[in-house]
Amino acid sequence: MEYIRNIPHESVRTLADEVRAEKGQIVSKTLAQNPYVSLTLFAFSKGEEIGTHDSRGDAMVYVLEGKGKFTVDGKEYLLEAGESLVMPAEKPHSVFAEEDFKMLLTVVFPLEKE
């Protein structure tokens, strides 16, 4: 069973090459999704955005290429390639593409109490 999917195993990859957005698009590629963690690649074309929302888990973004603006609980952060940001669980956040950009999103969800 593969826990990480949609990407070859045992193959050296450049993650930014795994997704591509055309003008007016946001493209996503899910690499892992389960009750504990979500791993998704995103490619945004300039001017595209994901509106304000929140998450049950902590969400960490790592910018692979370009520049994106992240707003967390009203505070803006401008991230460039090589930079990351943790957006805490249950805090409203949004993403805006200042220019074409790509990111890896990792969300770690709380363990459910039995």
From TrEMBL:
InterPro entries reported in the protein's UniProt record: Cupin_2, RmlC-like_jellyroll, RmlC_Cupin_sf
Domain Cupin type-2 intervals: 41-109
Taxonomy, superkingdom: Bacteria
Gene3D superfamilies per UniProt: Jelly Rolls
Signal sequence interval, chain numbering: none
Protein's name according to its UniProt entry: Cupin domain-containing protein
Organism: Anaerotignum lactatifermentans
Source taxonomy: Bacteria, Bacillati, Bacillota, Clostridia, Lachnospirales
